[in-house]
Amino acid sequence: MARAAKRTFRCTECGWTAPKWVGRCGDCQSWGTVEEVSAPVAGGVTPVRSGTPARPIAEIDVEAAQASPTGLAELDRVLGGGVVPGGVLLLAGEPGVGKSTLLLEVAARYAALGPVLYVTGEESAGQVRLRAERVGALAPKLYLAAETSLAALAGHVDEVAPRLLVVDSVQTMSAPDVPGVPGGVTQVREVAAGLIRLAKERNIATVLVGHVTKDGSIAGPRVLEHLVDVVLQFEGDRHSQLRMLRAVKNRYGPTDEIGCFELTDSGIVGLPDPSGLFLTRRTEPVPGTCVTVTVEGRRPLIAEVQALVAPTALPQPRRATSGLDSARVAMVLAVLEKRVNLRMGAADVYTSTVGGVRLVEPSVDLALALALAGSHTDLALPRGMVAIGEVGLAGDVRVVSGLQRRLLEAQRLGFTTAIVPADADDPVQVEGISTVGVSDLGQALLTAFPELRR
Fold this sequence. Notes:
Layout: E1 6-11, E2 17-18, E3 34-39, H1 73-79, E4 88-93, H2 99-110, E5 116-120, H3 125-135, E6 142-146, H4 150-160, E7 164-168, H5 185-202, E8 205-210, H6 223-227, E9 230-235, E10 242-250, E11 258-264, E12 267-270, E13 289-296, E14 299-311, E15 319-322, H7 326-339, E16 347-353, H8 365-377, E17 385-387, E18 390-391, E19 397-398, H9 403-412, E20 417-421, E21 434-438, H10 441-448
Parallel strand pairs: 4-8, 4-9, 5-6, 5-7, 7-8, 15-16, 17-20, 20-21
Antiparallel strand pairs: 1-2, 1-3, 9-10, 10-11, 11-12, 13-14, 14-16, 18-19
C-alpha cells in the first residue's frame, strides 16, 4: 500500500520547515508566513528517465549563454557585458526613481537585435506610448502589452517570440488558480516562478521590475531574490538628477560595479565620467570644504564634503547631515573635541555633500574632519588639495584600500596635493601629484592649515 504524504509546514520567506503549524517562523521570526505544503515521505520518490541526460561539463555549449549588450554602456558595465539569454534580472527601486524610463530605453535599444516585449501592469498602453515618444524610445520591433494576468502574458510571448521580455512590475501580475491578491506573498512567488520557468524554457532574457518597502527592501517573499539570476538596485534622490545602479546579486558578472545615469526630461543618459557632478566650481577657496576620492564598486569618484560650524543660542545644538552617515559625523566631531581640542559642543554643525551623492565609506573621515576644522577656524584649504583617510577613535589616520586608483583619479582631474595616511611599508607615488603622509589627525590639521602653527 502506498504511504500517505506527511504534513509539512514551510516558511514562505526563508524556507524553514516545521512538522506542525506555528504563527511565527522559528528562523527569520516573520509572522504569518508559515504555510502547509505536501511532501512525500522519505524514500517515496520514484526515479524517472530525464529527457536531457547529463553530459560531461566540457561538452556543454556556452555560445547560447553569452551576454548580449543592451546598448547602455553603464548598464552593461554593472551586468558584466549585457543580458544573458534565459537569464532573469530583478530591478528594484523607490517609486519615481526612473525604473520604467530606464527599461523603456533598454527595450528600444535592444529591439535593434530582435523582437522585444514590454508588458506593463501599472499603466495603460497609451501612457507608456506617450513616455516612449517623449524619451525617443520608439522602435519597430518593440511590442507593448498592458496585462496583469500571467496566462495572458504567456500568450503574448507565444505570439511575439521576443528576445527580451520586460515585466513592469512583478507585484502587479497574478497567476490563475493561485489564492491571494496580486502583490501578496503567494502570488509574487508563483508569478516569479512561472516567469523564470518561461524564460528558461524559451531562452528569453527577462527583466522584472520590483517594488520596495518603506525600509528599502524588495517587497514580497525573500525567495524572490534567490530565484532570479541578477538583482539590481536603482538609487537616487528625487530632488537630484543623478541615479546610481548597483548589483546586489549577479550570477553572470561582478557585484562591485556601479552605473551612473542622469535622469532628464528627454530620457535617461549614462554618465561615464560623473566626478564633475560632485564638485562645486568656484574661483577662490572657501572655509569648510574639502575634496576627497571615494570608491563606488571599482570606480573612483571625486566628491566634495561641506561643513558649517556656527554659534548657537539653543540649549541643545543642532546636528544636521545630508549625504553622510550621521554616526560617523558624530564620531569625527568627538575625535576633534578630544584629540585636537577643537571645541564644537556649543555650536550648530551642518554637514553635506555636493551633487546628491551619498558618502558612507570610512575613507571620507579625513576630508570631513578637515572641512569641520576649516569651518570652525575660518581657514580654507589650498587649491588643488584632496584628503583621503579613515580616522580612528584615537585620532590616528588609517590606511584605506585602493589608494593608487584614488590618486590617479585626483591627478586626472587636476589636483596636485593629497593628504593621505602615512604608510612607510608601501609608499604610493603618482606622477603629477605630491602626497603628504600623516599618521594622526593633529598632523593632518597642521599640514592642511599651516596658519595653526603660529
